[in-house]
Queue: 2 jobs
Job 1
Amino acid sequence: MENNIVIKVSDLEKIYDETAVPVHALRGVDLEIRRGEFTAIVGPSGSGKTTLLNIIGGLDRPTAGKVEVDGNDIANLSDNQLIDFRKKHIGFVFQSYNLIPVLTAKENVEFVMLLQKRSKAERDSRTRELMEAVGLADRMQNRPSELSGGQQQRVAVARALAPKPAFILADEPTANLDSKSTANLLDMMARLNKEENITFVFSTHDQRVIDRARRVVTLEDGKVLSDHSRE
Amino acid sequence: MLPIVAWRNIWRSRTRSLVVIGSIVIGVWALVFLLGFFRGQVNNYINNIIENETSHIQFHDSLFTEDYDVRLFIAQSENILSELQERPEIGSATSRVIVNGMLSSSNAAQGVMVKGVHPDQEQMTTGLYDKIIEGTPFDSTRRNQIIISQRIAEKLKVKIRSKVVVTFQNTDGDISAAAFRVVGIYKTHNRMNDELYVFTHIDDMRRLTLLPDDAAHEIALVVNEFDSTDVFASRLSAEYAPILVQTYKQISPDLELFNSQIRVNMIIMTTIFMLALIFGIINTMLMAVLERMKELGMLMAIGMNKLRVFFMVVYETLFVSLLGAPIGMGLGYLTLKYLHYRGIDLSAWSRALEEFGMADLVRPVLDSESYVMIATAIVITAVLASIYPALRAIRLKPVEALRKI
Ligand SMILES: Nc1ncnc2c1ncn2[C@@H]1O[C@H](COP(=O)(O)OP(=O)(O)OP(=O)(O)O)[C@@H](O)[C@H]1O
Ligand SMILES: [Mg+2]
């Protein structure tokens, strides 16, 4: 069935033309991601990884091509519709600045559910469940500044998962982490992927991260160079 | 949730927020003080005129005040006066004979307005004797005594017990003159009045101007309920027609003008103050927004819509701006209370103040209306100041905000 496909992009072109010299960042990318995949987008710096993830995530618009996310064509959504769409369908984990510094870990995880006006009981049980899933049930009341970088990224994953998105998009989630925290975060993501069937799409430069991926899509110069799956 | 986040955001740059809050406290406090001082001075001026000059209500012949013609008197004024004194609304009342004349000594002469008064009633109504700085009250056993101001005494080079001559027109239209002995020298806070008014016994003036025994040119009243002056005056006016009955506002229209002028000045001062404030707040909040671009980009990326981002910044601005306002107003209120009770002594400037007819002691005071005006102005300022930073915040595009280091 088609609905196993959560992301489908075809003939994706992106030209940044606000600069003096237009940059052709994506030149015809075709990609399908299925539910439950654990995919790394890799490639040299400037190859278009961030650009691709931003377009899939509805943060940026393609110059040409089609983007279907969770069965919806998102090309024609207005800015506000996009914000709503992201809130419902996509979980984001960024390299940094993922959390609201003035909120505790628990409140950060709850935040999107609050925006969605979920009941307190639902928020509480979901938050606890997620904080346990990322192994930080004992750090609920700490603010981000009181957590290590790796712990912050794990809270960010919990935060991203809270509204039960179709998939998690993570642009270099481990770039600021040491190798131990990187391994921890990857362990946790892999476990969530295996046990909860959560779809992850992440970009990385890090060979150790690439080694953990079950599917590796390599970009070069705005095109898909290779696409390997392994079990 | 948004208010909570906004509230906590304020305390991220604790020092910066405290500086803003502190300057608002000081600014509002200073504004309250200034307006209270203003208002106190105006009240001082108005009260001085009422207490020393106009009282609350005056009776005249309807044409008398046009050129102070001696013949335009109120007949049977003593009857009217005793009727008035019976009325419970009236605190005190007195009648006067008023004659324009020339006061001369062997050294100099000066145009004056002679007020022939009932000494005891005049004392109760305008406190004539309280202003005497040298000499004595009238001695009821003697005729032709006069009380003059210090300024006139200096000008005519006369002292207590000196003789002066008053020249005036009597009711027959003849010029006549009479000698008076100076028994008292007075001084008020109003230079112009001091140079104009001299006081004698009403009976002396009646006799000298050939007026009937119960004639007077003016009846002045002090009412018990200041706020009901207007209503009461119009009742008296109906009862005593065709005698002209006027309130202090009608007698001195400049008081009302002054009053409304001050009101305008207070609004202008408040506006200037708020303009200064608005830029300070905008500047601070813009800083707070710009240094949080990444975070705001992230919030928009994860699904916080523009309206919410907008209101988060608005809340933050309102919190920062409005936190200091009540403290400033409270401090201002207490300061005014204290200074009202103590009074501010301006005797160092008393010569200048006399030109304007103001007393040395100012009691600052501010009506609740003005507090409401200040509070409203601050709220408007805060709301206006919040708009620009909030618009800047929602103008961010999440990708761009996140890409910036
Ligand atoms: N806003 C922009 N304006 C102009 N050019 C841009 C913009 N964003 C990205 N680019 C260019 O597009 C190309 C792809 O950039 P992108 O950030 O997608 O690469 P990347 O694979 O994520 O690189 P990295 O590994 O360094 O993060 C690069 O040449 C980059 O310079
Ligand atoms: Mg990148």
Job 2
Amino acid sequence: MATVMKNADGAAVGTAVSKTGRPVLVATDVSSGYGSGRVLQGVSFHVSAGEIVALIGRNGVGKTTLLRTVMALNRLDDGEISLFGLPLPKATHAVSEAGIAYVPQGRDIFSEFTVRENLLMGAHASKKKEIPAILERILTYFPALRSHLNRCGGVLSGGQQQQLAIGRALMTTPRLLLLDEPTEGIQPNIVSQIAEILDRIRAEMKLPIIIVEQNLKFAMRHADRFLCMQKGRIVVQGKIDELTDAIIGKYLKV
Amino acid sequence: MAILPIQLMNGLFAASVLLLVSIGMVVIFGNMNVVNLAHGEFIMAGAYTAWGLCELGLPFSLSVIGAFALTAILGALCERLVIKRFYARLEETLLATYAISVIMTQIARLLFSSMKKLVPLPVSGGLSIGSLVFPAYNFVVIAVAVFVVLFVCVLFYKTGLGKKIRAIRQNRQMAQCLGINTAVTDTISFGLGCGLAGLAGAIIAPLKIVYPAMGSAYLMDSFSTVVVGGVDSFVGTAMASGLISESTSVLGGFMSEIYAQIIVLIGIILVLRFRPNGLFSKEKR
Ligand SMILES: Nc1ncnc2c1ncn2[C@@H]1O[C@H](COP(=O)(O)OP(=O)(O)O)[C@@H](O)[C@H]1O
Ligand SMILES: [Mg+2]
């Protein structure tokens, strides 16, 4: 059953850490926003080892803000976030060092850099000797990038940029991956390419992933669980096969 | 008779001076979007350092390196203690760097009084090209300017540190998301920009008089170069320095120096009006 829990104020809150799998990320009563405005209002959820969690909800409910808060790009007004049992660092670069990689909604490719330079920027903290092997391993997932290594990142198609953004994130050898709308604005045939890449990443890396998706078919194909947001709160969550038409109708249909 | 070659050669020398005094400002403005109003004072600090070290008996070349090192450290300290608190707020960085410029001038007055100091020319005599003779030190200045441009190009385009700084320039938040500690690179960039200003001060010290308020003259020059050259390439800075200096110098051969400067200034204003990103910057996509 999908669980909808309410706290004293009647606001929905998340479940506690699941019994299966080591907790990777645990967020408790997280509030945050931009400047003085609040977007997230007491969000609690967790991600366990090896699982893919879909974060869904209409436009503007705070999905991106939630990922940005985990990356320490938005300040944490209230609540706690822990990663592998340790408090999340306060500086974004330290969050990356702690093992979280982020593929932002706009992909944010370094447009003046070549594909290779973009990828290598992800591995800047690795030992020099190990970098070629890391690059080689990541490129096995992205044949489309291998043939464009010396092209400028800014001239790639949307689908290529998306792959580059995912590849660059993986170059940091993360322990948790955050993907913000990886299929947004991408042609259907490329979407299926990205889906296959995610399948391989999941099978071979066992990397836990939080994926924000408007494309429900895509989300349901990959995710083990879903978190559904409305107005800065998680209102429903559960196993992906518990994502019923009723929930979709209530929280997702525009 | 051979007025044009002389003007061209003098223009090349003036361009080298302009390039040296501007490149530190380009580094800081390009990488962190801060207009360093204390830029001229770091030039002054470099000139005083070179003067002091020469007085202590150090050879001029070591004095120049000392000036670079000392002003770089001073710049890094200013960034750590003051400027880093104001990033992304343009007016406040202007105020902060202006305050630093005033404080530095006053400290120089206290330490050295307003008396003018002279640094002897490290190489005297002239070198001849064909039938024309130019001061030997002019060639030193040109060589140092070429070296400095090559140095910053290699630093920014070939080293890991330089690539990180360029990544930050393109997308600061994304660079942080990949684990780049921008607080550290900001301090390094600011220190480097100030160090290059100090180096410029040391190199021009033998050509000018060293005094506490000497820096203000260079702020406008550097700013003009940044406006014409744009901030996204050092080659642009070099071309802008060349264009400004050569046109002033060549025009100065045919009319009074003042008119030449006015015409060039009008040119700069036109650039600012029609190509606000600079003449040599790539069009933004
Ligand atoms: N840079 C910003 N500054 C101020 N408010 C913002 C900013 N970005 C997003 N918001 C606001 O935060 C809310 C949540 O946005 P966001 O997290 O991007 O939603 P989602 O990703 O779910 O579409 C929206 O109401 C939006 O207007
Ligand atoms: Mg979003």
